[in-house]
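## tool: complex_structure
## caller: assistant
## args:
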Amino acid sequence: MNKILFGRYVPGNSFIHKMDPRAKLVLSLLYIIAVFMSNSWLAYGTSFLIAIIIIGSSSIAPKFFWDGVKPLIGVILLTMIIQVFFGVGGQVYWHWGILSITSNGLLNAIYIAIRFILIILVSTVLTLSTSPLEISGAIESLFMPLKKLHFPVYEMALMLSIALRFVPTLIDETEKILNAQRSRGANFSSGSIMTRLKKLVSILIPLFESAFSRAEELATAMEARGYQGGEGRSKYRVLNYTKNDILGTIFMIIATMSVLLLRNWS
Amino acid sequence: MDNIINVKNLTYKYANGGEKKALDNVSLSIKRGTWTSIVGHNGSGKSTLARSIDGLMTFSDGAITVDGITLSDDTVWDIRKRIGMIFQNPDNQFVGATVEDDVAFGLENLGVETAQMHSIVADVLEKVRMTDFKERQPDQLSGGQKQRVAIAGVLASKPKIIILDEATSMLDPQGRHEIIELINEIHRENNLTVLSITHDVSEAMLSDHVVVINDGKVVETGAPKDVFKDNEMLKITGLEQPFSAQLFDDLKQKGVFLPEELKMNEKGLEEWLWQSLLKA
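## result:
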């Protein structure tokens, strides 16, 4: 479980690794918008080329990207099947009741699969090259304007980083409780879905109980260390834009502009 | 030497505890630069006392003065700046995502400048010998290492007093030994006042001063070698005898008579036993 959430960050020293997490976050969003706007082969081809360039400059082994796409293959196939059978318009090849296979349906199915894969690839670059800590720092910084609307940005960022920090601790705890219940004869792997869900209660309640007592102790420790809320705190980690960010931004703006220009180009 | 901590007639009642008092009219003073152990069995009120001194619990009656400042709602943050606390559970006091972030947490709260913060963090990590681990996450560290990080976090904000709230009780013997050694080193180098809440008698034997608490009352105070001689008191409070005293009494029962002063002197006892072995 830990691997899915956190083992993902691959430390490195590539162009992408050295970029500011805020720039990476915003540029990834820009790319996703461009992919959604694509509607021609040429636009998709360009988007694909951009993805390859981004992956290349992250110096992360292709295996990690395959690991990112693999768990979602089922979802991609399902949406493709729905598109194939329920898509309408264009030449009709086959039909039975409300189901039909049309040329537009087939085309859309392929477009959707490409969209999915491109978005997964680029967001995988983001999560593989940026530590959770950097991501929470980036979110804090990007949300700063909301401070004017009295949105508690510091507190939210601290909450996020504490939540991230306690995930491995609570996973360990879950395993301990699971083993403790098993040693008392609990069986979590047989019975119908309902009985299995009911058995989970015997894990969840001790887990909640312990999470609450941890939270209370952590709050005491934070107070003892002088935490009085976000006001007046300084920051240990300061984010800085560098040359890489400017280059990356220029590249992405040109790239997405060309995708938009190649729309409707057939 | 002046008193850095003065506790006067402190009384604490639990919100739902009825008439039972966790602390009952406790008075004590702690001299600047000393190492004091507060001992007692579970539920004796020793932890409540430590937390009250740091303003983490609101007591019903009494007064606490720390470094000349009387504890109140207005002064509590000033007092917390002077005290560094290390708690029992190594995991539940680790706030930062990595070692260096955790050490910096207290400094961030004080609003220390970023550049200065980086040099302080590097310094204190060196002092607790955790520099190589600075980018590690808490789940990649042992309990003893996490406690060392907690000590670094405390040292970073340069307190005058360190309170250990059973800081070694969840560690293995080796980790426990390392933490006590480290605290001892810091205590001597920086002339820090150490207040250690513990039920480990061998740890208390190392301190300058011992305060025994039972059922919310101070039962005995004094130098460890005098306090732990009192078998009657140890029985009532449920504390263990120091190892040397146990051995001394066992040998006495077997008819081996040793000089009385060795009862509280583990090194001396060892030496005496060696010598008598060689003579025999």
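## assistant note: The mean pLDDT of chain B is 90. Strands of chain B lie at 3-13, 21-31, 35-39, 61-66, 69-70, 83-86, 161-165, 193-198, 209-214, 217-222. Handing back to user.
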